[in-house]
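User: Can you predict the 3D structure for this chain?
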Amino acid sequence: ANPQTDAQMKQRSKFDIVLGFARIFGATIRVGFKEVATTISEYNAFMSENMLNDFLAYVSNAWVSDPSKMIVAKGSLDTTDYTAITANASANTVTLSWSATASGNQSNGDKLYVVCGTDTAGGGDSGSYSRNSATATIALNGDIVTSDVVNGYFFFVSADGRKVSESKFFTVTV
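Assistant: Here is the predicted structure, written as structure tokens:
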């Protein structure tokens, strides 16, 4: 009752990779999938979303990730695009900027959530910045150096915590 077919083994390895990311982003996922996880846990909603999308592609007998396709939040709040992203190696920070003007079903009180990192440093913020701040500086808990690539995701949560926007991917080279 434990199939060892190539297809089953391939699926299991994909599951293990997505599970690894779920463990890394656990706290963020609990917020990011809160709105859409009505009959399953936020964790399971993340797993399902990222098992079905094109985040992982099987190429030359190995899984290759495309971080721009991972989803760490999903909901009905209108999304926000960033206007600028910079990284500062001497301060070990990433600064993210966006329009402070709310539109659609957004409000100025929406809270920003961010998770980002390199191979050796990571960081995030959970609701310390509101939409009308228009900028956030995220401290990374490790050293970043010139030429490091920082990948990350951000999304907003309504002030009452009921609505979540879909996450947006960003990347910046230090």
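The chain has a mean pLDDT of 92. The longest strand covers residues 122-130.
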